[in-house]
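name: query_chain
kind: protein
chains: 1
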Amino acid sequence: MWPSREIVRAPMADGGEGTVAAFLDAGWTRVVRRVRGPLGRAVDAAFALAPGGDTAAIEMATASGLATLAGAPNDVLRASSFGTGELVRAALEQGARRIVVGLGGSATNDGGAGLLEALGMRFFDADDRALAPGGAALARIARIDATDLDPRVRDARIVAAVDVDAPLTGARGATRTYARQKGASAADVALLEDALERFARVTSERFGSNARDEPGCGAAGGLGFALRAYLGATIESGVDVVARERGLELLLAGAAWCCTGEGAVDVQTLAGKTVAGVGALARAAGTRTVAFTARVERGAEERLAALGTIVVPIADRPQDTLASKRRAAELLERAAARFARIVHAGDG
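structure:
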């Protein structure tokens, strides 16, 4: 349809699902480890190791995400990020000294305490009993023991690749904004919010960290907070991190169109998701952007349009979610063909 056009594929992600795949597509090596899933069941999780082995890219969704539950109900009160910490440890064992941790798609709301435990941290209540896994237990935290923290992680450079700019707590924080998506009830939300507040306060008293309100610390149920406050991680836009590895800015230079997309375009899209991040890079390069999506929220569509990104729903008629998922590839292909015909007609 576009015989005179060159089309270049560059898989993108924002720190959530697909982040490791984007690095693997760039020629990195796939490493698989069996780790503890969010509710304790063993899962196989993969990370990517750069040529030379000095850098690893981890996707917390593969170890501690909702996808690992295979459709089973989540227990957000006790879901733990321990498995993600096991991946970090595995990357260190491979010799990585720079570790990119993609934050997104989590089943957890434990402030990253599970990850820290997998790396040797210990958390206790006022009676000096070790805390149980999960965010709810943090409501009783009284003492932190860092004696056995893996010394290798102190020398590593950690990058938290986030897809949202939420702080740890508050109206826009990890719990009040995202916990319901993970199965939390109204009572659970109140409990978890108080628990993370206490975790932040005890952390500040122990280490002098005030990371709670930093943008991105609320990502992945507060995992961003643990990486920042305990491991000194830098918090960066996941889209920007992946875009740098893929050389996206160079690819966009001189391009006529940039095609991107995600399952739903809504208010969260504008807080750091792939579509918004890719659109911003394309706009800076003077390239027009089209975003394909299964569902679009009007307010988000208009805001993206003002930023130069055209949103194109892929559905060709009203249909339920299951039908849309079954036909996703077909619907996307047909929507892309319609877009191509429009652009081709305009070129003529």
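note: Residues 186-207 form the longest helix (22 residues).
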